[in-house]
Amino acid sequence: VSIVGQTELLLHRTLARSGDPRPFTTGGSSERTGAGTRHCATGTGYSEKSIGLLRETTLIFSFIERHQDEFPVELMCRVLEVSISGYYASRGRPESERITKDRVLTAKIKTSFEDSRGTYGALRIKADLCEQGEQVSRQRIGRLMRQAALVARGKRKFRTTTKSNSSRPVAENILARAFTADRPNQKWATDITYLPTREGWLYLATVMDLYSRKIVGWALSERLHTPLVTAALEMAVQRRQPPSGLLHHSDRGSQYTSEVYKQALDRLHAVQSMSEKGECWDNAVQESFFATLKTELGLSEAQWGRAQTRTEVFEWIEVFYTRRRRHSAPCYRSPVAFEEQVTIPN
After folding, report:
1. Dist. CA 121–CA 142, nearest whole Å
2. Backbone angles phi and psi of 272, in degrees to 5
3. Euclidean distance between the first and the last CA atom of the chain, given in angstroms as a whole number
4. Which of 78, 136, 207, 344 could serve as a FRET partner for 306 with CA atoms 20 to 30 Å apart?
5. What burial class does residue 188 get, using C-beta atoms within 10 Å of its C-beta: 0-12 exposed, 13-18 middle, 19+ buried?
């Protein structure tokens, strides 16, 4: 079987998977073998592993030069696992302008992706590049990410943590999934999630300002009880000093329907709002936050002991999420960058 023929077939298959509109013929290209002439684009079942027989760099570069009118140079370099710059250097001429730009862009995309801890997709990377003065389409970024094998991690589905107490009165759902605010400290949403550690569970309660999606208060505890949520609320109040009339939304968990928590809200002159029974989407912003945290810290399973988990959560919330991570809701900016538009407490 012709080595060149197998390579061409692999290139055709790669073009087919990528949706490239090029015709699936080589224009009559053929390779002489001991049994006669065999057309390279015909036949099936060739082993793609035979590409390893072309590892000799000189042969690979010669093959690319002979077929550059039939296949994109960058595609052949990727399939044959050689560098584009190395190919052009061997031919004694500079890279094409487009390939040079793609190579420079790919390096910037990789930096943005790595700085995001492997979580950014094309849109957030586009925002990073825009700040650097690079106007690049989402489609081009997506193509370069695929070529560089950069795949952002996905979120897990929501899962309810708090349990309601049907004997206690609950508040009306005033928020009604209106997860935007015109100003800081107008609407807060709060919730609890559990975090697995090698020493048992930790419970995390957070308070989010819906204006910027900033976590303004949070607390960790080994016990799922009311002091956990009151500690998170106290941090938020100390940091933000909210005005009277703050809309405070939560689910119907027993911690939020407790008399102690209601009294804390009364002292703030806050208006309490609660999700409908069993409707996790009524507090989707908090659920989404928890899903992001667990995905980006790898906390679908235990990673560390309790002390190290506390440290990792602190660093992720206070440093990465709040100050660096771009959020889709506030114009692909971090909460801190978004809040710089107005003067508010820290």
Report:
1. 8
2. -90, 135
3. 70
4. 207
5. buried
Q: Which residues of 144-155 are buried (b: 16+ CB within 10 A; e: fewer)?
A: bbeeeebebeee
Query: pLDDT 10s per residue in the chain (346 long)?
Result: 455 566 666 666 665 555 444 443 333 333 333 333 333 443 434 344 444 444 467 778 888 888 777 777 888 888 787 888 888 887 776 667 777 888 888 889 998 888 887 878 888 888 888 888 888 888 999 888 888 888 887 655 545 555 555 567 899 999 999 999 999 999 999 999 999 999 999 999 999 999 999 999 999 999 999 999 999 999 999 999 999 999 999 999 999 999 999 999 999 999 999 999 888 899 999 999 999 999 989 998 999 999 999 999 999 999 999 998 887 766 788 999 999 876 555 5
How many CA atoms are closer than 13 Å to the CA of 28, on its beta-carbon side? 0
Q: How many CB atoms lie within 10 A of CB 217?
A: 23
Measure the CA–CA gap between 261 and 187, rounded to whole angstroms: 17
Give the amino acid at 193.
Answer: T
Which residues 6+ apart lie within 8 Å of 95 measured at CB? 84, 85, 88, 103
Contacts of 35-38 with C-beta under 8 Å, sequence gap 24+, read 38/2, 38/5
